[in-house]
Amino acid sequence: MKWKLTGRFLFSVVLVVILVIIFNLFTLLGFFIFQSYKNHSSFSSNESSVETFTRQFQNQIIISNNHITLNEKGKKELINNNAWVQVLDSNGKVVLSYRAPANLKEKYSPLDIIQMYKYKEIDADTTVFIGEKNVKQKNYSYFIGIKNRHLQRVVLSYDTRDVRHFIRVGGVTLIIMDSLIALFIGYIFSKRLTKPIHKIIEGIKRLASKEYDINYRPVGVYKDVFYNVNHLSYQLKSNEIERKKLDKMKEEWIANISHDIKTPLASIKGYAEMMKDTDYDFTIEEMREYAEIIEQKSQYLKEVIEDLNLSTRLKNKELSLNRKKTNLVALLRGIVIDILNDAKYSSRNIDFQFNEEKIDMDVDELLIRRAINNLIYNAIVHNNEDVQITVSIEKKESVYITINDNGKGIKKEELDRIFDRYYRGTNTGESHKGSGLGMAIANDIVQAHDGEISIESRIGEGTTIQIVL
């Protein structure tokens, strides 16, 4: 676009210069024509080639013993130039004539000579020039008539006072007129240049006021700017829609997690009040049972708080990874064993597969464990008890970790948001409570290790999550 603007600017400058030059030329030409009719000014005294030919033609006139003739060169030059000659003595009498028209005079008075030289007295196509030859203190003059309709002669004179007056008055007039022309062209150019800018500024103001329904026709020198304003409007509108969705999801998430936190808090408070009430006389076994419930609820609250803290630190990139060389095969095997050793999940079908016994990699072991745990638990709690889960790891050009299940699958609209913060899936097979940040945390942990995570799922066929490190 900058080259188009530069081109427009240069074009306007060149146009102004050309118009000013043309105006000045026409002004000067008009001045010359006007002065020629009034027999006033001229600024040129250069002789044309025709005048030079006329002046030098005296060399072709031979005068000997009062006998006047033309040499062969002179005759040839007259023929070649379609010209004629008349030689006059000091009394104006024609003493030699060559190729002259028959209707010319044989004797010329001084006034006739002036008329012949200054005006066209022969015909419209013939221009007459005059020359002089001196021989032995005798003066001869001669006319040379050249028949050429394209040949013109203007006899001009000038008065220095008129020249000075023209410079003063005409110069100021030319400067004023040239300035007006430049201002006029500049006004037209600036108007065409600034009119779209006002529209662009108006569009930016509307965007700043959160009016995103802007659609300009991308034309002219600012075509790219209009296109980008339209694109920005579309992006801001999309972001605003996305922000509203996120705000709504946040509100729902806050409501859900508040409810999830209130439930264990109510249990903790209730059992604590019962245990301190003197009206109740609990046995040791009952006290231990209540204490265990309080401990479980407290552990749940701790996990929720840790999820919130970890998610915030990962989102703001404030978490430093404690990388160390780790055998990922042993790590995944340990995770699967720990889950199966949990009494709640001991009956689940979890298969572990690997193609090498040892795959070493520099990772933060605690964070990778947390991510894999979140993904496996997600497959457990969102499917029925008979779901088959397969955890596999293989090394190719990179390390591939896959968690696959043959469960219910995930809807397309949920699949697109599965790694978003605050999103909690609806396809839960059992009572599932928590922060709703498990999948987002797993995604952030993988990205913190410069890895990639992807998910594929079909309703009724299952889900596959793959991590590439």
Using the CA coordinates, give the radius of gyration: 54 Å
Number of structurally distinct domains: 4
Which second-level CATH architecture of the largest domain applies?
2-Layer Sandwich
Supply the CATH superfamily name of the largest domain.
Histidine kinase-like ATPase, C-terminal domain
Large-scale geometry: rod-shaped
Mean pLDDT: 82
Fill in the CATH topology of the largest domain.
Heat Shock Protein 90
Strand order of the largest sheet: 8-10-11-13-12
Coarse structural class: alpha+beta
Number of helices: 11
Q: What is the CATH class name of the largest domain?
A: Alpha Beta
β-strand percent reads: 15-25%
The beta-strand count equals 13
Question: What percent of the residues sit in helical stretches (DSSP H or I)?
Answer: 40-55%
Largest sheet: 5 strands, mixed
Low-confidence stretches: 39-47, 426-432
Give the SSE order as H and E letters: HHEEHEEHEEHHHEHEEHEEHHEE
